[in-house]
Structure formats: structure tokens, C-alpha cells
Amino acid sequence: MEIKTLTPKLSVSAQILPADLKAIKEAGFRAVICNRPDGEGADQPTFAEIERAARKQGLDAHYQPVETGKVGDADAEAFDKLIGDLPGPVLAYCRSGTRSATLWSLSEAKRRDLSDILTATRAAGYDMGGVVRRIANGGKTPTQTVDATYEIVIVGAGAAGIAAAASLKARKPGLEIAIIDPADVHYYQPGWTMVGGGIFEPKDTSRTMGSLIPKGVHWIKAAVAAFEPDNNAVILDGCRVVKYGRLIVCPGLKLDWHKVDGLVDTLGRNGVTSNYRYDLAPYTWELVRNMRQGRAIFTQPPMPIKCAGAPQKAMYLSCDAWKRRGVLSDIEVNFNNAGGVLFGVKDYVPALMKYVEKYDANLNFFHNLVAVDGPARKAWFDVAKPDQPVERVEMGFDIMHVCPPQTAPDFIRVSPLADAAGWIDVDQATLRHKTHDNVWSLGDVMNAPNAKTAAAARVQAPVVAENILADMRGRSPVAQYNGYGSCPLTVERGKIVLAEFGYGGTLLPSFPKALIDGTKPTRAAWFLKEKLLPPVYWQGMLKGREWLAKPEKIAAE
């Protein structure tokens, strides 16, 4: 339990347990507020249990449940009254603390400056960007003034957003489409593994955003602050309002570097690197090139993450480089995975295990990185093996490649479009939102149970385009997504295990087995990754040319 202070009278926290109430009492609190509805999570105690434990400690307890992403004006007003009525200091909690912090922010909007509220919540670890317009407007979100209106608005100009815009324009050139994204540069992120392996140059993985926005598509260079789906409105930073007929949400996910204590302070130095960042991938290769002995650790956080094979790709390419130089026998290699398996689709594991054995790498499952001391070259992992208490272990390192924890962006997690876990809530076949019929989502931010890869977005984009155009014609969805994702696992320089699979781990190979057997390492798959996939991305996917991405039709009843 981590308590985060917003004001002398109010602190917030993630879910508490009945056993925590004694410590809460000892910390000086006099009341608790539960902002999480009962039954939201299987491991969640009921409020009645919390209330009984609170009473035993002489604490007041109040139940004010609010659904995630649905903090209304009345909720904020009720919260404000509670804080005023209850003896302080007060501890409010929900699943993560975000709803409680949001309720406080909105309830204080008429009394405090916006900057004061954002400073307090940011210091506590909560980003209120998703409700900043409401805070600036005294706790309410006005959508009466409209700055622009488009037939289709796309939030996010990453691989998914640009591909969706290009697929729509290819089918109906006259569509009025706007893409909202504040970034100046677009990155080919699958190439960063190759940069970290000394194969690609960093500059080959980036282009200016303006050069990639499809012709005829409006680019709104701004960040999204909030969604108002009942009003068909997107609220931008600066309180501008963009209205839409149909909305596509695909801003990608958030790399939560701050979730690992000490990590941000040491990234890019002290031997700590990551291929998950453009500026750090070259440092990976520098470390690998210069290492001759010692311990190397490669980490993987709990799922979901983008490209679940990327953490071990970094390990394989590093080991291959060390083996070629004749120094691998002097390097202790550790793959510390928060999960319990090497790869989620069992058909590919035998081939990968042969390389784990070839490189004499230690597989440390259920090891989740929680803290780093870069100058001391030490890392701490919480080891959470099944049916055993969590144990914190310390490991020294000479180099460490980190895959950061990953979540949906904050403005998504607190939005009305998100599910209880913070991801956009879609039908996994049609990619249409489950409750808002004119909203679709694709890419890393939606909650379909598929691998979060660029290859997945390449197949999803035409599905979304087909279904939106069908909807505009008054028809039901006509295309469905089968969960396809691809992970080219670079097991050595020159060979790749080409994992291609869909929902439920079903194998979905794109090529005949005689050409590429995805369950085995092949040079043909390496040629695909090194030579063919970059132009497929830049000249195909982002241009509306749907190579290897023909939408699967929904069979007529």
C-alpha cells in the first residue's frame, strides 16, 4: 500500500485491504472513502469488509463508487461534500488512485488554479491531462463551442492512425478526415531492435510526421485532453473542441519508465539501456560492442506490452554478437521475465529454447524489475512465483537492457471509452466500440486479446476502414479481425523465427511452409525483416497499399 498526499487533509491510494486499516490508523488518518465499485476485480475486498475493519480501528468509512473513466460533475460535488463533512485527514482509494485524484481535481476546480491542481496530482504520480479542460472550466466540460468538425477524426498518428487514414482515403478519397497528434516525428519502432543489434542506422527508422500524413487529411498538431463521446467531441489541450461523425482512437500505449524506481535517472548511462526508445537503441549496440565479460540482464515486465518478443530479441542479438567475438563464455546472461513462459505461443518455444541453450542464458521467470541503482550497478526484482510469497532479490549487472512497464495513456485510462483496465473497449472482431457505435479503435491501445505489434495494426487498419464505410452506408460490419500478429524473433544475425499467430495462439502463416517455416529459424525470414518489411511499412501500410493485409469478410448469415 502506497499512500500519496494531495493536501494535508486528503491522500489517495490504490486498493487497500482490511489488514491495511491498522497501519492507516497509525499513520494518522481518521476516515477512508472507497471510490471503487464492489465487484470490479476478482481479488478486490468488498466495501463491507473494509468498513468493518475501519470501524474496529475507530475510523469513519464512506462508500462513493465511481466507474472507471466516468467521473461525472455530480460525483465531484458529492466527493467535495464528503471531504468537507468527514474528519481529516482522509484517505480515498480506488483501483489505482486515479479516480480519487480525479474527483479531488474536479472538486477543487473552483477554488484552486489549474497549475496548482496539476502540480499536486503530478507530484503524487497522477496525470490529469484527460480532465484538464474540465478543471480549467470549473470542473465541467463545455462542448458548446466547436472549433472544427470532420466526418472522421483519428486520434494518434502512429502506425495504426496513418494506416487507417490511408486505407479510408484509398477507398473513398473525398472523405473529410482529421488526424490529431502533437508529434513532429514518426518512428518505425520495429526497426529499433535492429538498431540495438548494430544492423540498422537510427536515422532509417524515423521520418517527419508531415511527410507521412496522407494527402487530403487534415493534421491537427495538438494533444488530446479528453473525450466526450455522448457529444461526439474530442477536447484538445487549450480547450479547443473538435467534433466528429465517427472516431478512430489509436494513440498507442504509454511506456511507464517511472514505474521502476531509479530507472529514469540512469537510462542511457551506467550500462542501462533499452531498445524501446529511439535515442537509447544505439547505446544498446555500444554496450554490446564493448562488453567482454561480466553479467548482462535483459528484463521483461508484466503483460501487456508492445511486441512481447522484443526483450528476448535484444538478448539473442547481443549473445550472437558476443559469440561471434568469442567472449560469450565470459558473460553471464540472464533473461528476467515477470511472466512464467518464454513465449506465449507454444509452437515457437522449442526453436527459441535451442537458442537459449546455445547462448547458455539463464531464464529467470516471475522476476519483475522494480528498482535500479545505476551508479552501483544493482537492480532489484520482485519474484512472484505461484503460491509463494513475493520475494525481493538483488542482482548486480554490468549491462542491463530494460523493457519498461506499459499501460494505456493516461487520457485514455480516465476516459469514458476505456474498460476497467484502462484500454479502449472494443468488439474483438469488428474493432467497434462496445457501447459507442460511432467509435472504433486499433493498434496497441484497444483491449482485444491480440499481440500488440505493427503487423497487427497493418491488418486491423483495412478492417476498420471497411467497417466504417459500411456504417456510413447504413450497413452492419462487413470485415473482421482474426487477431493476427507477427513477431519476427531475431535469434541470431541472419536468422529469424517468424512467429505469426491470431486469437488463441492459432498459427496464421503468411507464406507457404516450403518458403518460410515460422517455427524454425530461417534466413528467408531474416531477409523479410531486414529488406522487405521496412518498405512494406513506409510504402505500403502508410500509403494505403494493403499488401498481405486483405480484410477477412464476415460471412453472411
UniProtKB/TrEMBL annotation:
Cofactor: FAD
Alphabetized PANTHER family for the sequence: SULFIDE:QUINONE OXIDOREDUCTASE, SULFIDE:QUINONE OXIDOREDUCTASE, MITOCHONDRIAL
Protein name: Sulfide:quinone oxidoreductase
Keyword check for Zinc-finger: no
GO biological process annotation, one example: sulfide oxidation, using sulfide:quinone oxidoreductase
Keyword vocabulary terms for this entry: FAD, Flavoprotein, Oxidoreductase, Quinone, Transit peptide
GO MF entry, a single one: quinone binding
Lineage of producing organism: Bacteria, Pseudomonadati, Pseudomonadota, Alphaproteobacteria, Rhodobacterales
Entry-linked CDD domains: PTP-bact (cd14503)
Record carries keyword Flavoprotein: yes
Domain FAD/NAD(P)-binding intervals: 150-263
Every Beta-lactamase hydrolase-like protein phosphatase-like domain range: 3-109
Coiled coil ranges: none
Species whose genome carries this gene: Jannaschia pohangensis
